[in-house]
């Protein structure tokens, strides 16, 4: 069975049996709206959905994370690549999205060699989440080695600022709920080409990676940069570098480990990116 298209994923999410896990923000009754110390009436509010999502490989449950229940195929592919469970998207042979009252399971069939590597990883693991570190048992498992980022054309300051000014119009979930992160792929002129949103910043980046590589393969990140509406942690840098992204721009701060990792990988890291200002922390060696 081939991987489902984005449309088939949407159809599955609309299935009556999965109504409790909807793609769209939920409407809830808000009790009291307090502004400037004054208590006023409040009617309804739009809030982001947050759902337990399990990554299951050949029947083995490997990770459970809290995520927004949309673009799930992209999340599965991006997570599998970023966590080095598969080397290429075509090593995922089949994907089924299963719904239950407890959450959503992404049931994948992967290549035998990938499954063997996954089982080997799990011998020394208690559990994992989308952060890429949780559940490791020793320090030696924490910082994974990965090849240097291929040389890529890089954006100039004008392109970064242009993307920043226009990111918000590509964040419908954030506009409605104020509760989601975005990861955007921008071209060298700063035009936003693809965006994925999620309640988790790691999930948003994995979804973007899965979407781009699923459609464009090896050319997915050849010319442009990724803009994320979050801080630049080590895990975000790791996900970007593993997938050959040449430049990561974050609206908030980087960590020291993120900076060191980006420098070693040859990834250009930009932080505190706001309209009128951004800070370049690493350059290509």
TrEMBL record:
Task: Name where it mostly resides.
Answer: cytoplasm
Give a GO biological-process term.
Mo-molybdopterin cofactor biosynthetic process
Give the molecular function GO annotations.
sulfur carrier activity; sulfurtransferase activity
User: What Gene Ontology cellular component terms go with this record?
Assistant: cytoplasm
| Domain of life the protein comes from | Bacteria
Q: Which residues bind Mo-bis(molybdopterin guanine dinucleotide)?
A: 272-277
Pfam families, per database record:
FdhD-NarQ
Q: Which InterPro entries match?
A: Cytidine_deaminase-like, FdhD
UniProt subcellular location? Cytoplasm
Where are the active-site residues found? Answer: 131 (cysteine persulfide intermediate)
Sorted alphabetically, which keywords does the UniProt record give? Cytoplasm, Molybdenum cofactor biosynthesis
Give the UniProt family note: Belongs to the FdhD family.
Q: What function does this protein fulfil?
A: Required for formate dehydrogenase (FDH) activity. Acts as a sulfur carrier protein that transfers sulfur from IscS to the molybdenum cofactor prior to its insertion into FDH.
Write down what this protein is called.
Sulfur carrier protein FdhD
Q: Which organism is it from?
A: Marinobacter nauticus (Marinobacter hydrocarbonoclasticus)
Gene designation: fdhD
